[in-house]
Specification:
Layout: E1 7-15, E2 21-27, E3 32-38, E4 47-53, E5 58-66, E6 73-79, E7 84-89, E8 102-105, E9 110-118, E10 124-130, E11 135-140, E12 153-156, E13 161-169, E14 175-181, E15 186-191, E16 204-207, E17 212-220, E18 226-232, E19 237-243, E20 252-258, E21 263-271, E22 277-283, E23 288-294, E24 303-309, E25 314-322, E26 328-334, E27 339-344
Antiparallel strand pairs: 1-2, 2-3, 3-4, 5-6, 6-7, 7-8, 9-10, 10-11, 11-12, 13-14, 14-15, 15-16, 17-18, 18-19, 19-20, 21-22, 22-23, 23-24, 25-26, 26-27
């Protein structure tokens, strides 16, 4: 997709209203936020590459979603120079046109591990890490372009929490967030009880069996409950947690999905066209991009593991979405060549 310099870190992928993939990522050469837009479903055709923000050192921890109001991409990301959370709203489907970026929060060192979704009101809601206070934060925008927003909300401050946050809109229409508790080396989840996250249920510890919770990625299953992929650093495994309620208070099923070597970095989970989770991640042993496809909704019934790309040192910073054909599309970094790559699967399980 892009081989102009040192590119491809912190990628985030969504399917645009034109049915084609659009990807935000960090350009390490110019310290900028870039967007790549494909002109066909597998990204093999002509693509458009746009530098969306190059003011200071910006673009790490990007998270892209398609807005409901206009159908254009909206992206949250970290401004490392000002240690702030930023949002940029595109005014075209390919992001060749965009509004001026908005600084949403600059109270301390904030904005790492951002995760953006579109709420039921049509406006973006973003989870992120406050590194100064070591807390999980959420901000709700009150305009589609995030030029206006509610005051940021402190969601969890019990220890050093909030890294690797992943936000989705639950079956009840309210945000739900997975994240890491670094103090207790565990995976946590918090469920908001309203659309702007000013009110939340008690945060739940989902898994505390060892050093777990890095690279969490959350999606809402066909039953309306959260499904989370993440890394078990103690065992060097890929794991999946499936909650039996929207807030995970009803318990969860924990499954080791891949334990073959050193695996589970940079996970990205989506619900496939068959209704079951599909997960992209890095296999550090083979320096490869892998995909796990579960055979049931909670991944307890087994899975198919596929090595999608092992040409060089690849598979960092994976992002996955389900294309209009029902099959996964994955963006990731080729660290050997310092490129952004895309893989389009020919089946639901890759």
């Amino acid at each position: 997709m892009d081989d102009a310099g040192n590119v491809g870190q912190y990628s985030s992928l969504a399917i645009g209203t034109d049915h084609f993939p659009v990807i935000s990522y960090y350009d390490g050469t110019t310290s900028a936020l870039k967007v790549a837009h494909c002109t066909n479903e597998d990204c093999s055709g002509v693509k458009t590459l746009t530098m969306v923000d190059s003011a200071d050192n910006v673009g790490q921890y990007s998270s892209l979603a398609i807005g409901e109001t206009y159908g254009y991409p909206v992206i949250s990301y970290y401004d490392a120079t000002n240690q702030a959370l930023m949002v940029v709203h595109c005014t075209s489907v390919d992001c060749t046109e965009f509004d001026p970026p908005t600084m949403v929060d600059d109270a301390g060192n904030v904005g790492q591990y951002s995760s953006l979704a579109i709420g039921t009101d049509g406006y973006p809601v973003i989870s992120y890490y406050d590194a100064t206070n070591q807390t999980l934060m959420v901000v709700h925008c009150t305009r589609a372009d995030c030029t206006e927003f509610d005051p940021p909300t402190l969601v969890d401050d019990a220890g050093n929490v909030g890294q690797y946050s992943s936000l989705a809109i639950g079956g009840d229409g309210n945000p739900v967030i997975s994240y890491r508790d670094a103090t207790n080396t565990s995976l946590k989840l918090v469920h908001c009880t309203n659309g702007d996250c000013t009110s939340v249920d008690a945060p739940m510890t989902v898994d505390n069996s060892g050093n777990v919770g890095q690279y969490s990625s959350l999606a809402i299953g066909t039953d309306g409950n959260p499904v989370i992929s993440y890394r078990d650093s103690t065992q060097k495994d890929l794991k999946v947690a499936h909650c039996t309620s929207v807030d995970c208070s009803g318990g969860q099923t924990l499954t080791v999905v891949d334990s073959d070597g050193n695996v589970g970095n940079y996970t990205a989970l989506a619900i496939g066209g068959d209704g079951n989770p599909v997960i992209s991640y890095r296999d550090a042993t083979n320096r490869a991009l892998k995909v796990a496809h579960c055979t049931n909704k909670d991944c307890s019934g087994g899975q198919t593991l596929t090595m999608v790309d092992n040409d060089g040192n690849v598979g960092n910073y994976t992002a996955l979405a389900i294309g209009t054909d029902g099959n996964p599309v994955i963006s990731y970094r080729d660290s050997t060549n310092k490129d952004l790559k895309v893989a389009h699967c020919g089946t639901v399980g890759c």
